[in-house]
Structure formats: C-alpha cells, structure tokens
Design brief:
single chain; alpha+beta; 2 strands
C-alpha cells in the first residue's frame, strides 16, 4: 500500500532544492544546484527498488521499473 505521507515528504524534499536555471550558462544543466536534484532522484529511485538507475553528463536520470509479473507482457 502507498504511504501518502512518505510520498508527500519525498515530493516536498524535491521542491525544496533550488533548481533555478542560469540563462547565461552554456552548460546542461545550467547550474550545480540542478545536479543536486538529479543526484537526489538517483538515490531515491534506488531506494524504491528501481534498477539500472543512472545519470548522464547532462543530468538526465534514467531507471528501469522491474516487472511485477512473471510472464512476457
């Protein structure tokens, strides 16, 4: 069963991270603070059981949701 408080707390932890972009930056992401959110997402995805969790050079976060069935879908 989903724990509503845990979900809300997790969401609040994300929105507390300052991810304002820098319009003058030529990098992606444009600020180090945006990396903070990406790293937090990686940690949390691993914590909830996602597999193949990774982050690329542009702070794109990827993960695989393992199947919850034992047959081909």
């Amino acid at each position: 069963m989903l724990d509503r408080k845990k979900i809300v707390d997790r969401f609040v932890s994300y929105i507390k991270i300052d991810t304002e972009s820098d319009p003058n930056s030529e990098t992606t992401p444009s600020t180090e603070k945006q990396w903070d959110l990406a790293k937090k997402l990686v940690e949390d995805l691993k914590d909830i059981g996602m597999s193949d969790v990774s982050i690329d050079k542009n702070a794109y976060v990827m993960a695989t949701l393992p199947s919850n069935v034992d047959h081909e879908v």
